[in-house]
C-alpha cells in the first residue's frame, strides 16, 4: 500500500431534526478545542443534511497516531464524546477511519493541486503538485 498523505475520522450522527443545530454547535466547539490542543490537526468539516436527520463530522490529521490521541481525549474528557451523544439523543453513530491516498484541491486562483504519492507514475517532476486551470 502507498504511504498515506493524512488520516481522516468520519463520524455520522443520526438525530431528530430539532436537535441538529445544537449538535452542530457542540461539535464545532469540540473540534475547535481539538484543533488548538492537539498537534497534527489539519482540517475539519461539520456537515448537516438538508432533511435535518444527519450530521457528519470529518476530522483530518497528519497521522493516525495524532487522530487517535485526540479521539482518546474526547472519549475520556470532561465534555466526553459519549455524553455528547446522549445529550443530543443520537439514534445511531457511525465511525469510519480512512487513510488519505489522494487529495485534489482548488486554490483561490483556480488552479488544481494534486499531490501524487508517486510522481514518476504520472510523469510529473518531483515536487510539482500545481496544475494550471485549462
Written description of the protein model:
With 134 residues, the chain is an alpha+beta fold. The chain folds into two domains: 6-101, Alpha-Beta Plaits, CATH 3.30.70.100; 102-134, no CATH class. The protein contains three helices and seven strands, in the order βαββααββββ. The protein has helices spanning 20-37, 64-76, 81-87; strands spanning 6-14, 41-48, 54-61, 92-100, 105-106, 112-113, 130-131. A hairpin with a 5-residue loop joins β5 and β6. It is globular, with a radius of gyration of 18 Å. Mean pLDDT is 81; it is low at 117-134.
Task: Summarize, please.
With 134 residues, this protein is α+β, with helices and mostly antiparallel strands. The protein has three helices and seven strands; from the N terminus they run βαββααββββ.
Offer a few descriptive terms.
alpha+beta, 134 residues, Alpha-Beta Plaits, single chain, 2 domains, 3 helices, three-stranded antiparallel β-sheet
Secondary structure elements and pairings:
Layout: E1 6-14, H1 20-37, E2 41-48, E3 54-61, H2 64-76, H3 81-87, E4 92-100, E5 105-106, E6 112-113, E7 130-131
Antiparallel strand pairs: 1-3, 1-4, 2-3, 5-6, 6-7
Give, in spatial order, the strands making up the sheet with the most strands. 2-3-1-4
Low-confidence stretches: 117-134
Shape: globular
Helix-strand pattern: EHEEHHEEEE
What is the gyration radius calculated from CA atoms?
18 Å
Report the CATH architecture of the largest domain.
Answer: 2-Layer Sandwich
* Record field, number of beta strands: 7
Proportion of residues in extended strands: 25-35%
Oligomer: single chain
Query: Which structural category fits the helices and strands?
Result: alpha+beta
Number of contiguous helices: 3
CATH class of the largest domain: Alpha Beta
N- to C-terminal separation? 32 Å
| Average pLDDT figure | 81
- Fold-level CATH name of the largest domain: Alpha-Beta Plaits
Domain ABM: 7-73
Protein name: Antibiotic biosynthesis monooxygenase
Organism: Pseudomonas agronomica
GO molecular function, one term: monooxygenase activity
Amino acid at each position: 500500500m502507498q504511504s498515506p498523505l493524512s488520516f481522516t475520522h468520519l463520524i455520522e450522527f443520526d438525530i431528530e431534526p430539532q436537535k441538529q443545530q445544537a449538535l452542530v454547535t457542540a461539535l464545532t466547539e469540540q473540534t475547535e478545542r481539538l484543533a488548538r490542543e492537539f498537534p497534527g490537526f489539519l482540517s475539519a468539516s461539520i456537515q448537516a443534511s438538508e432533511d435535518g436527520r444527519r450530521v457528519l463530522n470529518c476530522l483530518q490529521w497528519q497521522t493516525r497516531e495524532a487522530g487517535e490521541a485526540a479521539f482518546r481525549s474526547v472519549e475520556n474528557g470532561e465534555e466526553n464524546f459519549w455524553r455528547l451523544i446522549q445529550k443530543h439523543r443520537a439514534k445511531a453513530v457511525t465511525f469510519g477511519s480512512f487513510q488519505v491516498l489522494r487529495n485534489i484541491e482548488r486554490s483561490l486562483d483556480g488552479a488544481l493541486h494534486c499531490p501524487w504519492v508517486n510522481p514518476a507514475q504520472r510523469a510529473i517532476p518531483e515536487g510539482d503538485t500545481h496544475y494550471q486551470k485549462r
